[in-house]
Amino acid sequence: MKKIKIFDTTLRDGEQSPGCSMTLEEKVLFAKQLEKLNVDVIEAGFAASSDKDLKAIQEISKNVTTPIITSLARCNYSDIDKAYESLKFAKKKRIHVFIATSNIHMEKKLKMTKDEVLMKIKQMVSYAKSKCNDIEFSLEDATRTEDKFMLEAIAVAIKCGATTINIPDTVGRITPKEFNRILNLIKQNVPGINMVDLSVHCHNDLGLAVSNSLEAIECGVNQVECAINGIGERAGNAALEEIVMALKVRNDYYHAETNINTKEIINSSKLLVDITGSLVQNNKAIVGANCFLHEAGIHQAGVINDKKTYEIIDTEELGIDADNIVIGIHSGKHALISKLKKLGIVFEEEKINEYLMEIKKYLEENKTISDEMIITIVNKERCKKLVP
Ligand code: KIV
Ligand code: ZN
Questions:
Q1: Strand 223-226 versus strand 256-257 pairing type
Q2: Residue-wise pLDDT tens digits, 351-388
Q3: Is 292 a domain residue?
Q4: Does the beta carbon of 98 lie inside 6 Å of ligand 1?
Q5: Residue 207 sits in the same domain as residue 314
Q6: How far apart are CA 115 and CA 149, in angstroms?
Q7: Ligand number with the minimum distance to the CA of 165
Q8: Is-contact 296 277, C-beta < 8 A?
Q9: Beta carbon of 143 within 6 Å of any ligand 1 atom
């Protein structure tokens, strides 16, 4: 079975998107959730973008030990120094260096020639490598880059020590077939490409980010970059939960698996919504509120006899459990503890009375409370308490 590494960029590309910024406490809380989800790599931020980002990457590095922690850097000494500084507490660290390689980006943004860009890749990948063994190199706007130049740029990065080569569809315009051609071209023509990890990073401007990521997996890439709930620049990044569940549910087709603990997908999605206030639509694949609800009579009749008539995903794999505990105005702390355990969220037992007080305040005004609202209240209380 082929293993696919999951590189989560919710805290970097995701956090960059409008309405999704997070405090340091929220970033640490979310990174801990990503560790429970068992992602392979957490892109914790872009250290050079602000001191706040640098500090957050350091705090995440202190608090999260299983995944690799990475920090983004442009191709200059100062960015790479800051990325390295931000990772000084990380048990497993990676510097993620990038530069744009498409004509439009080189001419209109970088104002650099191809030779100058190749020189920068050579100098800066080598410099990053002198500090850290694990180096990812990304060709920003790779899918609008001329073939010959793209192959040259990748070859230089590998020669200078890159251990992962990432091919971003920065503007979300590639189609699966075109992506297939580019990835095969790379695999067949770049010396040393089989010695490094090959990764993709797809944006969703045309709604193709997940399809393109899955096509890339079929082409043989072994890392995909994605974000919880598909958040990210503009229309977002490929949604982590959709890629992971497509590989799991259609394992008969893809013959590939991830290390993701799928029982933590819903918790991760909800925590992100609670932190950012950025909701997912009810019909969003995997994590939308309507995914496992049935209203039409014909469908109800089917699922009462066998859920598989209309559901292809085993809800147990997502940690969704039929629950009959109802939290009401008269409930005590034992009922709430049992409820929170069933919901599978992280909570502090010694704070249970504080959670209960907040829940009862809500119930005084609203009569009933949904599981989602209970989780929201607990997560809000936890955020208040974290990191002095
Ligand atoms: O979309 C993109 O090209 C990026 C790179 C920095 C990896 O986010
Ligand atoms: Zn991106």
A1: unpaired
A2: 999 999 999 999 999 978 888 999 999 999 888 765 55
A3: no
A4: yes
A5: no
A6: 10
A7: 1
A8: no
A9: no
